[in-house]
Design brief:
single chain; about 270 residues; alpha/beta; 9 helices; 7 strands; globular
């Protein structure tokens, strides 16, 4: 499944103006379940936070979470980094036009990026499943956090988070719905062991995308992206499709955030330095 071309096509539609881009962010905030879980975690984190705050969006991509953090508190200083130059240039252009002055962007490889004892919060949303050398990244992010700082990760679990197909491939070959993934999700104990080994003092992990989230993801992401990969003509149908499924998806997202899951295709992981 080619996911990046779809993102580029959507970006070309919603980059026509600052208003279009902000509308796109708001739609993603409603539809994407991971955003609901990240917002919940940030609300919990900020309760004990005072004074000058520095945040790293490690793998900022399209800038959705950088924008959320910047609008959440104008006193927070945020750096967004991404390995893709086009993404960084795109975000610099949008944030400059939007008048947000508390955000900067840099091209960076997270396996090499280190800023000693700089950040109160590091956010990593749907990033680690794309990086083979995850141990180096965990060490760098731990080193970049201030003592007591928090690393917040959202990533697929090994319970089918990358929607790996079990047919039509050679024995032992891993293929996923999103083919940019380098691993078939994380085991909930494995990722916490790696984080402790990287220098974090304690961790907490919980499953996301339980039964409500699985249905929501198929309706809001998997089916539309599959159709867009088959034909760009589906862009015409897309607004009507979301109009029909919108309220059901919102209900499923609400349930997924409220319920405690013993298993799920996603993980929300916290690690403190």
């Amino acid at each position: 499944m080619q996911y990046d071309p779809i993102k580029k096509d959507l970006g070309s539609v919603f980059n026509k103006s600052v208003t279009h881009r902000i509308l796109f962010y708001k739609l993603l905030d409603l539809l994407l379940l991971r955003t609901w879980h990240i917002r919940k975690a940030i609300r919990q984190w900020k309760k004990g936070i005072q004074g000058e705050i520095h945040i790293l969006d490690a793998g900022s991509g399209f800038g959705q979470y950088t924008y959320f953090l910047a609008k959440h508190n104008s006193a927070w200083k945020i750096l967004g980094v991404d390995v893709k130059e086009e993404q960084i240039n795109d975000c610099r252009n949008f944030f400059s036009k939007s008048g947000i002055s508390t955000v900067e962007f840099e091209i960076a490889d997270l396996t090499q990026f280190v800023r000693d004892n700089t950040y109160d919060l590091v956010l990593s949303v749907d990033v680690m499943e794309h990086i083979e050398d995850d141990v180096s990244v965990f060490k760098n992010l731990c080193q970049s956090l201030k003592p007591g700082g928090l690393l917040l990760i959202s990533t697929p679990s090994d319970k089918g988070g990358s929607d790996v197909h079990q047919h039509e491939y050679k024995p032992g070959e891993v293929q996923s719905f999103i083919d940019e993934h380098v691993r078939d999700g994380y085991n909930i104990d494995e990722i916490q062991q790696k984080l402790i080994g990287a220098g974090f003092s304690r961790t907490q992990a919980e499953y996301a995308y339980g039964w409500p989230g699985k249905i929501s993801w198929k309706l809001s992401m998997k089916f539309p992206i599959s159709m867009l990969n088959l034909s760009k003509a589906f862009f015409i149908v897309l607004p009507f499709y979301y109009f029909a499924t919108y309220w059901f998806v919102l209900l499923l997202n609400f349930l997924d955030v409220k319920l405690i899951h013993t298993s799920g295709t996603g993980l929300v992981v916290k690690a403190w330095k």
